[in-house]
Amino acid sequence: MAAPVISRAAEQSPSATQKLTIGKALNLGLRTAMENDPKVIVMGEDVGKLGGVFRITDGLQKDFGEHRVLDTPLAESGIIGTAVGLAIRGYRPVCEIQFDGFIFPGFDQIVSQVAKVHFRSEGRLRMPMVIRVPFGGGIGAVEHHSESPESYFAHTAGLRVVSCSNAVDAYWMLQQAIQCEDPVLFFEPKRYYHSGALRAEVDTAVTPAPLFSSQVLRTGNSATLVAYGPSVKVCLDAAAAADEDGTSLEVIDLRTLSPLDLGPVFESVRKTGRLIAVSEAPANSSLTSEIAMRVQQECFYSLEAPVLRVTGFDTPYPPTKLEEHFLPDLDRVLHAVDRALAW
Amino acid sequence: MAAPVISRAAEQSPSATQKLTIGKALNLGLRTAMENDPKVIVMGEDVGKLGGVFRITDGLQKDFGEHRVLDTPLAESGIIGTAVGLAIRGYRPVCEIQFDGFIFPGFDQIVSQVAKVHFRSEGRLRMPMVIRVPFGGGIGAVEHHSESPESYFAHTAGLRVVSCSNAVDAYWMLQQAIQCEDPVLFFEPKRYYHSGALRAEVDTAVTPAPLFSSQVLRTGNSATLVAYGPSVKVCLDAAAAADEDGTSLEVIDLRTLSPLDLGPVFESVRKTGRLIAVSEAPANSSLTSEIAMRVQQECFYSLEAPVLRVTGFDTPYPPTKLEEHFLPDLDRVLHAVDRALAW
Amino acid sequence: MPPPEPTPMVPGSRTAAPSPHQVIEGLKATDDPRALELLTPEGERVAHPEFDPYLSDIGPEELKGFYRDMVLVRRYDREGNALQRQGQLGIWVPLLGQEAAQIGAGRALTPKDMAFPSYREHGVAWCRGVDLKDLLGIFRCSDHSSWDYQEKRFTPYTIVIGNQVLNAAGYAMGQRFDGKVGNTDEAENEATMVFFGDGATSQGDVHEGFVWASVYDAPLVFFCQNNQWAISEPTERQSRLPLYNRARGYGFPGVRVDGNDVLACLAVSRWALEQCRAGNGPVLIEAFTYRMDAHTTTDDPTRYRLSDELETWKLKDPIERVRVHLARNGLADNEFFDSVQAESDALAEQIREHCFAMPQPGPERVFANVYHDPHPVLDAQRDEYLDYLAGFEEEGVH
Amino acid sequence: MPPPEPTPMVPGSRTAAPSPHQVIEGLKATDDPRALELLTPEGERVAHPEFDPYLSDIGPEELKGFYRDMVLVRRYDREGNALQRQGQLGIWVPLLGQEAAQIGAGRALTPKDMAFPSYREHGVAWCRGVDLKDLLGIFRCSDHSSWDYQEKRFTPYTIVIGNQVLNAAGYAMGQRFDGKVGNTDEAENEATMVFFGDGATSQGDVHEGFVWASVYDAPLVFFCQNNQWAISEPTERQSRLPLYNRARGYGFPGVRVDGNDVLACLAVSRWALEQCRAGNGPVLIEAFTYRMDAHTTTDDPTRYRLSDELETWKLKDPIERVRVHLARNGLADNEFFDSVQAESDALAEQIREHCFAMPQPGPERVFANVYHDPHPVLDAQRDEYLDYLAGFEEEGVH
Ligand SMILES: Cc1ncc(C[n+]2csc(CCOP(=O)(O)OP(=O)(O)O)c2C)c(N)n1
Ligand SMILES: Cc1ncc(C[n+]2csc(CCOP(=O)(O)OP(=O)(O)O)c2C)c(N)n1
Ligand SMILES: [Mg+2]
Ligand SMILES: [Mg+2]
Predict the structure, then answer these.
(1) Using the beta-carbon criterion (under 8 Å), do A155 and B284 form an inter-chain contact?
(2) Annotated active-site positions of B, please?
(3) Distance C91 CA to ligand 1 centre (A)
(4) ipTM rounded to 2 decimals
(5) Do A77 and D166 form a contact (C-beta atoms < 8 A)?
(6) pLDDT at residue D59 is higher than 90
(7) Boundaries of every domain in chain D
């Protein structure tokens, strides 16, 4: 197995920063995890020679071989279900689901096995598995390629759910998820995989923030925006725009969707009195509902306006010529801020 | 096809009441729907000769034949997926999922087809299908037989979700769901199927309440309890107990979980200022989260305490020797009422 | 491969068909692993005692018709591909190389039959009378399918691999329950055909479709276009054996046909549909063909397959062999070929024009047709959003 | 049915095994639709040139051992059933009638092999050395499975039909990736066996397990106990053909064995495991048997099947034929039979005592082991709930 140049460099220099897109950071994170632990294997549709339809696994099969990067048959229940068995055997499978809308054939194995094996076995069997899901819209695709199914998994006890919004987190969170002894659903903001604008310096030598922690990305006093994955950029853009109008918004990147780490949100709301939760997912019975529920409970006397949401509508994802209407954007976020401030 | 005596009686007398358990009311509702419309067919595992493991379809195959009551092969995706095709053909399938925990192999067909066919086809194809799910705990069963998966479906745009809590609703809501042109997930409180205590007079000649409406079952001033399915009885019992202590609780049976009909809840909260949402499902990103979200938004200035919840924990359903801890009971509900009143 | 004698049967009766004997005969009939071929890549017509009767009505005019079908759908396909390259479509899913499989199968269907496509069946759509313009919306991402499914008897494209196989099995069960198989008046009978790829055969839903169709004797032809690739994965990633063998484990016939031979595809499809209409239950057809283009316009096949493979398959081109056959045997003259060419140019022009003229759907479409019956929560979301948009217009911001 | 010559192969190598020739030979080998029988219901030993070698080490002592196994697990089963009737267990899932299938398969496994049960495999559990007392918790509903899976190499019971088949396929892939097949030192080799029922064969997961195991040449024996019923549904609701045929569509051998014949089940299982260990990939065994009791204690089979059926199957009882064989051939005397009887009485007594003494788990178990790593949200829920309970205790209310 040829050691990849890119990370040899990382080994050599104690503080090695590289400018990476989210996609390349994920690739490097995977590669590093595979080098560090021979039990880490990657499996999914087209992850081998093709490197995945988004090229996140690019070059891995070439360097690690067909037994560590598996082009599986075309069936998601099979991918997840065999990964369960591989995990019982001592492997740490990293499964790629090609697009968000295709996780559902594997849903039963996730809910009935992945989430429950540890509990069922009283901890005697572990399920250290990562299920990577490119998610969200904005890529002008056909049906089933733009969905945000994370709330289904947040609602499922026994799973952990995270989402990265930038290259640094992409690199570190993926490795941390692979090291986690519990199963982690890892949601990746596919629309920004190859975004040059989101290219960032990734220091592969620092100690990263804990995986299951939220982070304040921008401080402010007027209102708080909380988001995850692709919506974080929308919020940051909105905050920048609001700033010009003299409104100072705090922006929190949730990062961990289950368990929720709402401490920073509570703290922020105690300061701003106003919260807007932003997500591309349909609103009904979702993560944003849960955030509102917990915030109204913990910050009851601090809230000066109800928690508001800017989300996808309670419709199937529309034909993508219409997705600009469906997706939360800067205008809708600022409109919600205005409503909150005017309450 | 022998016309069943029981409903011949119903036809003859304009106001025919019968004292029925929830299980028998469902059976009679199904039978009536099948008599009224030859396109209604029942399908599922063991629904034929056996009459279903809970006997809800008892006698139907005998009276309507093997082509209207189908003992299907053992696969839930197959049951739902073929029902989709039958619906396109003009049938109105009523699928039985044997237990809540076994709906997941059919999840993909529900989310990707059942929920989306109408939208995808711009209304040219309809999906008048009912998926009956015996749900919830309290029956001392083994794993996967006591779950409350309703939030997954409430979160899924394109579906409708309802739950009955008593025999009258069981009889009517099932027929209304079958008449609905959209797909309906129909959650039945299995632990009370055969409860003599919940036996009730069902008048088969009245005009029932609309399917997608919530109902105030008991009025009160101190706090509001909102629940659905098996938790309604817990709330009614709690309200009766509280009454003895001089606390007057309003109890609302949600009945429709998607779309939510929160009008009666808002009205009640404007009066009582306090709301406790009760459900057996794990709390995280669930229906009770959504209720809290919407109530804090609509009744922001009326709430005297945050919306509280009494729910199952965010764990897999435990071994049932422990289910008394997991399930909301009268004590936990009253404890929450106390907390709300003391806020 | 003699089609088993159809047994007259009580419509909808569970136990009448097929007899174990028929099942066994059906299995034996398909013991030959070579793909059935009736027109060689060199344009030679090969006689076949069992299947020729299924082509008894196919004269020069019909064959010219298939030629025209294939040329038009190929031209349509290339135009779609080009429109995507020009940024007019979000994506294109090419059928290049699969014209014979789709026209052979599609022309075997009668107006009463139902077809459930996957996402690459533009050729079948054409045979069903779907206006090819109406397919563009899917790829322009302005709709999810917009023809009249009941009139055309061709359901919306299905993208989640395998789902449509179960949906088709259910539909075919309905045909049986409605008494539309096994009638002595053959015009009364119906069948269903469902399309899927080689990769799809791994999905649980396809298996469950096999189970359901076989135990309910549903009149369903499983038409698997084995184009040898599932995106970057060759068929060996899905199966040890040729896929037509799958059927044998369930007790219904499976046949492999040269998917680049329109006559063989037609004959086998007609035979299979006849089996279905007679009440004998399902048949699996594996049309062995080749995906000559990328998986979709977002795919780059140079990453995973060698170009020689394509060169070999060009020699087996489905259209070329019909052209050679027509020309060599004096069944068509240059005038004919030119007129088809002209017709295809005109089609391409129409498609382009239509594409450029396609309107942007309005925001209310996001909320429309999620449900048939009223839905107050969604209606409120729509009203709120449209109000919000109206606010911009008033302010003149948008 | 000569086992194909195992080809020495590079451990873990994808392409080494099996050759197409081996696959085809394997398929041919199973062309006989009759179930393999080595010990008739009347206790006659039937010679079989290909399978007898797999029993060469089975003398009278071993046979007496199997008799004892079967008697003990049956007694255990009846005791479990009785305890349920007495309200000591929430439910019982009887194995009555399936003892030979489970002991034959279970005794074929070596300590290194892994077994993935469904929910009825108490006999297999016994063979894996699981203390039968440890199975009670599942049915008493005080735990979800509590033995040491890695030590016993027997995973938790799986209730969602079919799930474990894919899990087992993954495990077996791991065995292969670890180089545990095809080694010349046979002691290095491993295989996996997965148990499921006739009804389960309809599930997509079982199909996907067939696909995965076959394309990855995973050392996995699919052991299908066809007890002819899936609750109230006879096998005809799941398949037109005997289930062992399913394997042929995927290119691996499928064998039907008399599931009431412990010797045949042992021999076929050993052969199949040998195939797996040699690196030839999966084998399907259909053990044709009969569920002599209800599906579970909540079931009422009188609603859907006639009692004659049971009477017929009583004549094929798996234990009786071994008893007759041992007695007739003077291989065991009354003392032996009495001692097994006494042992089974003692087992039953132990089980009862254990059952009555089983402690009620504490409330913290609800929250324990949901996750391995810390989980603040759940920890907070636990603490809040335990505080709440403590409140009652302080008040003396509970
Ligand atoms: C459930 C699901 N998983 C993954 C995909 C992504 N995907 C689209 S097409 C395709 C390959 C399909 O191959 P095949 O069935 O051979 O059909 P072909 O595209 O070759 O016609 C994949 C993996 C999908 N659409 N659905
Ligand atoms: C996915 C799923 N659906 C339904 C059930 C309910 N159920 C439990 S056992 C059973 C029948 C299983 O039959 P078979 O596979 O033949 O095994 P057997 O019980 O006869 O051993 C059913 C339908 C389940 N456990 N899982
Ligand atoms: Mg293909
Ligand atoms: Mg069975």
Answers:
(1) yes
(2) 145
(3) 15
(4) 0.95
(5) yes
(6) yes
(7) 20-357, 363-395
Helix (H) or strand (E) holding B160: strand B160-163
Q: Is C380 in the pocket of ligand 1 (CB under 6 A)?
A: no
Q: CA-CA distance, B70 to D359, in Å (whole number)? A: 44
C164 lines ligand 1 (CB under 6 A): no
Contact criterion met (CB below 8 Å) for C123 and C96: no
Q: What is the pLDDT along chain A (343 residues), one digit of tens a residue?
A: 333 333 334 444 556 899 999 999 999 999 999 999 999 999 999 999 999 999 999 999 999 999 999 999 999 999 999 999 999 999 999 999 999 999 999 999 999 999 999 999 999 999 999 999 999 999 999 999 999 999 999 999 999 999 999 999 999 999 999 999 999 999 999 999 999 999 999 999 999 999 999 999 999 999 999 999 999 999 999 999 999 999 999 999 999 999 999 999 999 999 999 999 999 999 999 999 999 999 999 999 999 999 999 999 999 999 999 999 999 999 999 999 999 999 9
Could you tell me if B114 lies within 8 Å of chain C, comparing CB atoms? Answer: no
Cα dist from D217 to B112, D153, D179, D213, whole Å:
32, 21, 12, 6
C304, C328, C371, C375: the catalytic one is C304
Q: What is the pLDDT of residues B162-205, one digit of tens each?
A: 999 999 999 999 999 999 999 999 999 999 999 999 999 999 99
Domain spans in chain B, listed from the N-terminal domain onward = 13-203, 215-342
User: Does A143 lie at the interface with C, CB-CB under 8 angstroms?
Assistant: yes
A236 to chain D, any CB pair closer than 8 A? The answer is no
Instruction: Yes or no: say if A114 and A129 are a contact pair by the CB < 8 Å rule.
Output: yes
Is any ligand 1 atom within 6 A of the Cβ of residue A323?
no
Question: CB within 6 Å of ligand 2 — which residues?
Answer: B 45, 74, 76, 98, 102, 105; D 120, 159-161, 197-200, 227, 229-231, 291, 295
Yes or no: say if C211 and B75 are a contact pair by the CB < 8 Å rule.
Answer: yes
Establish whether C48 is a catalytic residue: no
CATH code of the region B13-203 = 3.40.50.970
The architecture CATH gives domain B215-342: 3-Layer(aba) Sandwich (3.40)
C304 is annotated as an active-site residue = yes
CB-closest option in A72, A87, A260 to D377: A260
Cα(C330)–Cα(C319) distance, integer angstroms: 17
Largest CA distance in chain D: 77
Amino acid in position C306: L
Q: How far apart are CA A105 and CA A109, in angstroms?
A: 9
**Backbone CA torsion sign across D364, D366, D372, D375:** negative
Superfamily of C20-357 according to CATH: Thiamin diphosphate (ThDP)-binding fold, Pyr/PP domains (3.40.50.970)
Determine whether the shortest distance from the Cβ of C288 to ligand 1 is under 6 A: no
Residue C201, beta-bridge partner list: none
Closest CB to D232 among B50, B78, B322: B50
**Beta strand spans in B221-270 (E):** 223-227, 249-253, 256-258
Please list every residue in chain A whose beta carbon sits closer than 8 Å to the beta carbon of residue B314. 157
Q: What is the spatial distance between Cα C24 and Cα C2, in angstroms, rounded to a whole number?
A: 13
Chain D touched by A108 (CB under 8 Å):
yes
Quick check: CB of C231 below 6 Å from ligand 1? Answer: yes
Strand order of the sheet with strand B92-96?
B69-71, B40-44, B92-96, B130-135, B184-189, B160-163, B256-258
Name chain C contacts of B119, Cβ cutoff 8 Å. Answer: 144, 369-370
Residue indicated by tokens 């409109």: A335
Q: A296 alpha carbon to ligand 3 midpoint, in Å?
A: 51
Cα A135 to Cα A41, A214, A215, B303: the distances in Å are 22, 19, 21, 37
Mean pLDDT along residues D378-384: 98
Q: CB-based burial of residue A15 (10 Å sphere; 0-12 exposed, 13-18 middle, 19+ buried)?
A: exposed
CA atoms of C134 and C355, how far apart (whole Å): 10
